[in-house]
Write a structure and sequence with these properties.
Blueprint: H1 28-37, H2 41-57, H3 68-77, H4 81-100, H5 109-117, H6 125-147
Helix pairs in contact: 1-2, 2-6, 3-4, 4-5, 4-6, 5-6
Amino acid sequence: MRYMTMPPMQAAPPQNVPFRQLKTDRNLWVWLGLSIITFGIYSIIVWYTMAEDINMTAQRDGKKTMNYLLVILLSMVTFGIFMIVWMHMFSDRVGNEARRRNLGELVSAKDFWLWYVLGSLIIIGPFVYMYKVFNAMNHINGSYNQYGA
């Protein structure tokens, strides 16, 4: 009598595995260099992808960060005021998501106002802010890649 062997069963993947892996290697120096070389186009791409990433990673909060290309257009109409409001809200949402994931206080709306706005008086402030945002997004995306939403 011949016994038929069944192929080994594969374990079902966890339900919260991310659909795709998000970028975790954003770097201030690469951003600065490529933004200069591309006359700012790379910076637009980075902000666009970060807005999309935070929408994916922080979907549990029920909010949606506006598309960055639309933000640029609305900023032109409002003489830049819309961009300031959007960056405040983006920073706050990133900070809230970092705290929700137990990553600590990586960035907040306070950092936007202190480093990006007031820090521009000492020239390096916006770069410190960008470093903090990149660091926060790298950690949040890494957590998302590992644990899902």
